[in-house]
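Memo to structure team: turn this sequence into structure tokens by end of day. - J.P.
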Amino acid sequence: MIGPATDSEAIDAAMATLDAFMTALNARDEAGVNRAFNFPHVRLASGTVTVWERAGDYRLDAFVARAGDGWRESRWDERRVIHAFAEKVHLAVQFSRWRADGTLIGRYPSVWVVTRQAGKWGVQARSSFAA
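Reply from structure team:
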């Protein structure tokens, strides 16, 4: 049986990684988004598996194209740790996408995996119901 998530250092690092990702995304900071990832980085959504092999491969223009009409920013609605160990944290999250006028585009439940590679924490994989 798997016990509760108890590795507080790993949890803190994973949450900080999610914060860094969202801050970079909303600032349209492509390099910052790439820094928030570990590679290869995997995304499973809309029936498609996408893999970015190395830092710099992830492009914000592709995200903006699928984010929804008038996307301005994204926000974390929920972040719950499923499992946490010294080198990896699984999280059940939900994020929302918003337009500049304050209207909601949508809310998307997801599972994210944050890993530590060579001392660096980064988002390694995401599975979501977002486009």
